[in-house]
């Protein structure tokens, strides 16, 4: 290998000289000035010695020496960084020019601060939710796994299938299974329901968890016969147990079973989902239960895995699918037609939030573009008043590039000031959003002003500066010194500059239309969701959630736990009914509007699925008093009766959505449904009734088919009591809780007033719509200012023409028509472009809408009418000013 070429000494010497000059500029300027004066004095002295008079000698010496300023500049170019010096001078000159026009500077900086601030704040949220890597080691290699039926969506894994996949795959370094459990903690003051995760031993290590106390699970803890152990989350350890290190080795009673604490996780570990679990248990403790040994059982099990180095996601999918096909051949009854569902873990965690966040990010981006268009128009108008300045600079030798660089330097100053102010505004906005936003807004709580956000802020500020700097630079670059010195209005305002100004106005109106239309569609969706019939009467209705596992109402090891659970349900429901103010009470496994509790595949014997795919529905167990308490309307057939018990024929009541799907033109009564995969041998139920759709997954979610079963036939481990009161339901919360505790004091009770539940289900949509509405109003305001500015400038520049029109007989109506017509034409063009752009974007927002078409004609018409009105209103003041033009004054105007 050859040696590197040494740096030339001459180049290094020049670099050192220039660096020294940069640091000691004033001293070197003085030295250069002294040297120039010395040479002039010596030349003058020599001319005097030749006999010239002092004045003549001084003049002759200066003529012979040449332009001292040019010599000084040439000398400086040799020992300074010319580009840096020039740029610094331009910045100082630009700062002085902005200081001379503080009104313009303030408007520009505030406008930029607003646009950049909201963009920075929104990016902080988007970055935290979507762009920031997951807080786990090498997160790009982590994937999420479930099963799926061919032609259908994902479903949970069965434990035997997971064990085979973990053993037989060739693409994963390690895999781990997990699911959720609600466990009742007793022995610490009042009973408390804990969110627990059951996980196989490698799970926490896959996610890089570190213990703050004790140790993590090992494979020995995950054996079926191992002593029961538990790991605590950091929050639960610090909050419920006071951070006591002596908790290590202590036993916790969870749902009637004792678990030994082996450790507590560190404060920086975050589980995959929110809310965060409070305890972790080895899933192997349940390995011998029927739910874990049955290959056809798909409860709620999921898995994560870490890909081997160099293995792609596509290769992993193919490998797992091959294994699933092999299992389907070996176990055809359980795994027929089963494939794998494999996706990046980041996509699983944040993929559902991406459309909403990108919509908001795009919305604030449009606001910034509108702000830049406004500033470009202001700069263009300001530039036409500086023609004389630029003409003089051009006449004394400044090139076109130097003038353009000066304009860009001024724009850079405004952009930097606007970016700094925007950063402050973003920090304030984030703190306000955290306080007012509902729970569950993706990325909001983790958002902050970090390095990525600072870089984004700087890039947006510089881009904004370049955008609005182009406007005055482009037309001024076309003017020569002579034409600029003449200051003719045609050159100043006509041609390219006038077309650019109007083009900017059309652009910002179009952008405002896009944003206003999307905001209007989201507002219509919110109104549709709020006006959706929930299928029941939520007023004066309480939902009291109770977990029964492991309590004396469902003791571990009892041969007939259903009997004890039914006994508790009957007693607690009776206690509720006996309370003054309670009109009725019923029981279900899942209350309305609370989200999915249990969904699975089902089929109708003798009928193919209408969609050609495996049908999916939600299921719930209820007692005979549930529908009457909800005041849900029975459409056909009968309600459940006390005679529908475990000893009687299995029956079901379906909702209208299921009836419409399978029996659109006939009655479903006496038909049968089978719960399970279409090819399986699931249990069959006779349909005895049809109930009106009761919203289960939220007010803004399309209604799914749902079937209800008698609670006495399929007794659950958790129930929700619904109680209707004859007054304020909130006032009976304490009494209702005591009534349930009278049946079993060891059960935790969670109370949810139904009106609050409905409001919570729409809280996030309401918040997103509010943000979009604010952005839309801001865009309308900026568009209004843009119209006003352009029309005002046009009126000012056409004062002479208007005066001539009035002098030759034009009426006030004629002048109004002239000015308003100009504004209306530009506004209508912008509206047309905006509506066309919105129609082109409808595919991207369709999934965010509810019960509203993405091309809703009412919304489009309303936005067009609103923008037209706003534009004409913005034109009115300049139009009135034009009407008042004095012809005599206008004819003298130049």
Q: Give the strand content.
A: 15-25%
Classify the secondary structure makeup into a structural class.
alpha+beta
> Which range best describes the helical content: under 10%, 10-25%, 25-40%, 40-55%, 55-70% or over 70%?
40-55%
Computed Rg: 38 Å
Distance between the termini: 75 Å
pLDDT < 50 stretches: 1-6, 487-493
User: Order of strands in the sheet with the most strands?
Assistant: 3-4-9-6-8-7
Sheet having the most strands: 6 strands, mixed, barrel
Mean pLDDT over the residues: 82
The global form is: elongated
The count of strands amounts to: 22
* Count of separate structural domains: 4
Counted by DSSP, the helix tally is 30
Please tell me about this protein's structure:
This protein is α+β, with helices and mostly antiparallel strands and 894 residues long. It has 4 domains: 9-80, no CATH class; 151-336, no CATH class; 494-522 and 764-894, no CATH class; 541-763, no CATH class. The chain is 53% helix and 15% strand. It contains 30 helices and 22 strands. A hairpin with a 4-residue loop joins strand 1 (142-149) and strand 2. Helix 16 (400-436) packs antiparallel against helix 17 (451-477). The radius of gyration is 38 Å and the shape is elongated. The chain starts with 8 loop residues before the first helix and ends with a helix. Residues 1-6 and 487-493 have low confidence and may be disordered.
């Amino acid at each position: 290998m050859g040696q590197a070429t040494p740096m030339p000494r001459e180049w290094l010497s020049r670099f050192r000289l220039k660096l020294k000059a940069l640091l000691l500029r004033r001293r070197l300027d003085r030295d250069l000035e002294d040297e120039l004066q010395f040479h002039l004095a010596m030349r003058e002295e020599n001319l005097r010695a030749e006999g010239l008079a002092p004045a003549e000698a001084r003049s002759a010496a200066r003529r012979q020496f040449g332009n001292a300023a040019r010599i000084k500049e040439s000398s400086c170019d040799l020992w300074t960084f010319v580009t840096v010096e020039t740029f610094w001078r331009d910045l100082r000159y630009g700062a002085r020019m902005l200081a001379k026009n503080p009104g313009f500077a303030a408007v520009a900086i505030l406008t930029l601060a607003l646009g950049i601030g909201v963009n920075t704040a929104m990016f902080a949220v988007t970055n935290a939710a979507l762009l920031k890597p997951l807080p786990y080691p090498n997160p790009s290699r982590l994937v999420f796994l479930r099963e799926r039926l061919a032609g259908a969506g994902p479903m949970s894994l069965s434990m035997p299938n997971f064990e085979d996949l973990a053993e037989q795959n060739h693409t994963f370094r390690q895999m781990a299974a997990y699911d959720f459990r609600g466990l009742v903690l007793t022995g610490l003051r009042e009973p408390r329901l804990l969110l627990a995760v059951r996980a196989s031993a490698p799970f926490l290590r896959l996610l890089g968890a570190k213990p703050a106390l004790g140790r993590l699970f090992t494979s020995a803890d995950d054996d079926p016969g191992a002593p029961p152990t538990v790991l605590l989350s950091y929050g639960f350890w610090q909050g419920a147990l006071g951070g006591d290190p002596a908790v290590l080795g202590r036993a916790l009673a969870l749902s009637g079973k004792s678990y030994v604490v082996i450790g507590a996780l560190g404060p920086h570990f975050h589980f995959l989902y929110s809310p965060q679990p409070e305890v972790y248990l080895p899933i192997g403790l349940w390995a011998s239960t029927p739910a874990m040994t049955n290959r056809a059982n798909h409860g709620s099990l999921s898995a994560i895995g870490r890909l081997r180095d160099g293995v792609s996601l596509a290769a992993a999918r193919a490998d797992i699918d091959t294994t699933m096909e092999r299992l389907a051949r070996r176990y055809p009854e359980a795994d027929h037609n089963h494939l794998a569902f494999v996706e990046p873990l980041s996509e699983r965690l944040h993929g559902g939030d991406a459309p909403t966040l990108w919509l908001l990010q795009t919305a604030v981006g449009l606001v910034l573009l509108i702000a830049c268009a406004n500033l470009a128009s202001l700069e263009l108008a300001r530039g036409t008043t500086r023609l004389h300045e630029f003409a003089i600079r051009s006449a004394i030798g400044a090139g076109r590039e130097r003038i353009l660089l000066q304009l860009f330097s001024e724009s850079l100053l405004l952009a930097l000031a606007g970016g700094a102010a925007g950063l402050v505004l973003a920090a304030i906005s984030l703190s306000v959003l955290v306080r007012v936003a509902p729970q569950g807004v993706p990325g909001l709580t983790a958002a902050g002003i970090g390095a990525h956000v600072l870089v984004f802020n700087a890039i947006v500020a510089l881009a904004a500066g370049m955008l609005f700097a182009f406007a005055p630079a482009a037309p001024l670059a076309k003017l020569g010194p002579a034409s600029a010195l003449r200051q003719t209005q045609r050159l100043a305002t006509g041609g390219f500059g006038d077309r650019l100004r109007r083009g900017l106005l059309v652009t910002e109106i179009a952008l405002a239309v896009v944003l206003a239309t999307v905001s209007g569609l989201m507002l219509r969706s919110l109104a549709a969701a709020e006006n959706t019939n929930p299928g029941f009467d939520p007023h004066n209705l309480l939902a009291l959630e109770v977990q029964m596992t492991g309590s004396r109402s469902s003791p571990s090891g009892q041969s007939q736990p259903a009997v004890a659970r039914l006994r508790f349900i009957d007693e607690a429901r009776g206690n509720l009914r006996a309370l003054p103010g309670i009109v009725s009470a019923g029981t279900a496994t899942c209350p309305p509007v609370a989200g999915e509790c249990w969904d699975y595949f089902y089929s109708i014997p003798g009928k193919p699925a209408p969609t050609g795919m495996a049908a999916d529905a939600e299921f719930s167990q209820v007692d005979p008093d549930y529908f009457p308490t909800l005041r849900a309307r029975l459409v056909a057939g009968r309600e459940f009766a006390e005679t529908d018990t475990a000893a009687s024929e299995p029956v079901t009541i379906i909702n209208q959505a299921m009836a419409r799907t399978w029996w659109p033109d006939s009655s479903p009564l006496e038909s049968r449904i089978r719960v399970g995969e279409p090819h399986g041998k699931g249990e069959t139920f006779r349909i005895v009734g049809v109930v009106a759709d009761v919203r289960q997954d939220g007010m803004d979610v399309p209604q799914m088919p749902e079937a209800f079963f008698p609670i006495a036939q399929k007794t659950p481990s958790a129930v929700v009591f619904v109680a209707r009161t004859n007054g304020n339901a909130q006032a009976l919360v304490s009494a209702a809780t005591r009534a349930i505790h009278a049946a079993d004091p060891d059960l935790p009770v969670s109370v949810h007033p139904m009106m609050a539940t409905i409001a919570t289900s729409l809280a996030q949509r309401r918040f997103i719509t509010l943000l979009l509405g604010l952005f839309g109003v801001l865009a309308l305001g900026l568009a209004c200012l843009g119209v006003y500015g352009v029309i005002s400038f046009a009126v000012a520049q056409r004062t002479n023409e208007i005066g001539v029109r009035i002098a030759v007989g034009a009426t006030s109506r004629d002048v109004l028509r002239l000015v308003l017509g100009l504004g209306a034409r530009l506004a209508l063009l912008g509206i047309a472009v905006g509506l066309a752009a919105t129609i082109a974007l409808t595919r991207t927002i369709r999934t965010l809408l509810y019960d509203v078409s993405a091309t809703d004609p009412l919304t489009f018409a309303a936005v067009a009418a609103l923008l037209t009105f706003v534009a004409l209103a913005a034109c009115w003041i300049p139009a009135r000013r034009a009407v008042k033009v004095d012809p005599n004054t206008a004819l003298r105007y130049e």
